[in-house]
Amino acid sequence: MPSSLFTPTALGEIVLANRVVMAPMTRDRAGPGDVPTDLMVEYYAQRASAGLIVTEGVQPSAVGKGYWRTPGIHSEEQIIGWRKVADAVHARGGRIVMQLMHCGRVVVAANRGFDADVIAPSAVPCPTQVPGPDGVPADCAAPRAITVDEIPALVAEYAQAARNAVAAGMDGVELHCASGYLINQFLNPASNHRTDEYGGPVENRIRFPIAVLQAMAEAIGPGRVGFRISPGNPYNGMDRSDPAATFGPFVKAANALGLAYLHVVDMGLADCDTLNLLRSNFDGPIIANNNLKAESAAVLLDTGRAEAVSFGRAFIANPDLVERIAAGAPLAKPDYALLYTGEERGYTDYPAWAG
Ligand SMILES: Cc1cc2nc3c(=O)[nH]c(=O)nc-3n(C[C@H](O)[C@H](O)[C@H](O)COP(=O)(O)O)c2cc1C
Predict the structure, then answer these.
(1) Which residues contact 178 (CB under 8 A, 6 or more apart)?
(2) pLDDT averaged over the chain?
């Protein structure tokens, strides 16, 4: 099987035993107080042979929560819970970074369990529905626009979340700039109608995302900070036209920060070679994602298009994905009905390959 997947590499300060990365996946199994549970510890420990695990999206603050039972990293109990996860992964020789995901306007109010404002760059509701507590798609709440005066505190929340992640034993953090959540809402003209220095031309729309990356890099060191983008992804009401016009300048500005890596959900756009675009604007390592198989992933590594590759769905039903790829073993299929429900069912009960 493709040997290029199994050579070590480094993403900034983070040293990986192999190049097979587990992509971030929200699984809605946090406990009361949005605290990681022992079941989550087991789930991540089972997958520790990945060169790197990127956790599910984790809210940096209570207001960043939009989905049902997603974990946070803004309370002492949450830090203690995540420490168990990080320790278990490290005990098995793995590496793990935390994905920081502020939902911005992608919020079903009933998912939160508390009353708080829904904030976004502009008072433009998310046009699509997301699952409510019962899993049934529901309308998103109407957001209010973040004021300019609030922005420094919002940036500081991300920096504190990064510190908290490191205090919990994480090897680093990944800023979720993809899929229509808060950072993407600032980048995209469909959700950012601001007329101040955070909206309008691209140099303004990237200002908040870059400020967040810079603050996180200052908080824990740039070699422990990565970021994830999905140029051209229309998810959660993003305008997909001309992704190069936004993501070229964004990635170029992020490059100046000397970050650990860039993780990209490559949408396979007809009008833009995304990996080429990123390579010409970013000097650091690239993790490529989306619909990859072992063979296509190895081609990306062998041709120098990416330094590592990530798999999402394949890791759900194959906790030992790395070993299975190495052995050429068949892959199990996930039960999609149990993605966000079922506790241990469809979560920690997928067996390793019997051989
Ligand atoms: C159940 C599920 C939850 C996901 N949650 C997240 C998430 O929290 N953050 C994120 O950046 N991407 C998330 N994704 C997207 C995956 O990280 C990945 O980009 C996608 O599954 C495509 O990769 P694949 O073809 O290897 O599955 C999720 C995907 C799935 C299937």
Answers:
(1) 184, 228, 229, 230, 233, 265
(2) 97
